[in-house]
Amino acid sequence: MANMAQAVRMALHYAEEHLGVTDIFGEDVGAPLGGVFTVTQGLKTAWNSPLDERGIIGTAIGIAMAGGRPVAEIQFADYIYNTIDLLKIAGNTCWASHGDWNLPMVVKTPVGSGIRGSIYHSHSFDATATHIPGWKIVIPSNPLDAYGLMISACQELNPVMYLEPKALLRVKGEERIPGEPEDDRQLSKMIDAPLGDRSQWKAQWPQLEAYAVPIGKGKVVREGSQVTVVSYGRTLPLCKKAADELASQGVDAEVIDLRTLWPYDWELIKASIEKTGRVLYVNEDTEVTNFGEHLVRRTVEELFYKLLAPPRLLAGKFVPGIGLADTLEMASVPQQGDITAAIHALAGEQP
Amino acid sequence: MHDLMVKARVLEERLIQMYKQGHGYFWIGGPGEEAFNVPLGLLMKKGQGPAHDYLHAHYRQSATVLALGEEPIGALRQMKNTATDPYSGGRNFAGHFSRREWNIAPVSSPIEVQYAMAPGTALVQKRHGGDGISIVTGGDAGTAEGDFASCLVWSSRPGNELPLLIIVTNNKWGISTPAETQHGETRVSDRGKAFNIRSKTIDGNDPITAYQELKEAMEYVRKERKPFLMEAMVSRLYGHSSASGANFVGNEVDCLAQFEARLEKHGLLTRQEMDDLRNRYTEEMAAMARQVRDEPLPAPETIWNHIYAERK
Ligand SMILES: Cc1ncc(C[n+]2csc(CCOP(=O)(O)OP(=O)(O)O)c2C)c(N)n1
Ligand SMILES: [Mg+2]
Question: pTM of the entire structure?
Answer without folding.
Answer: 0.97
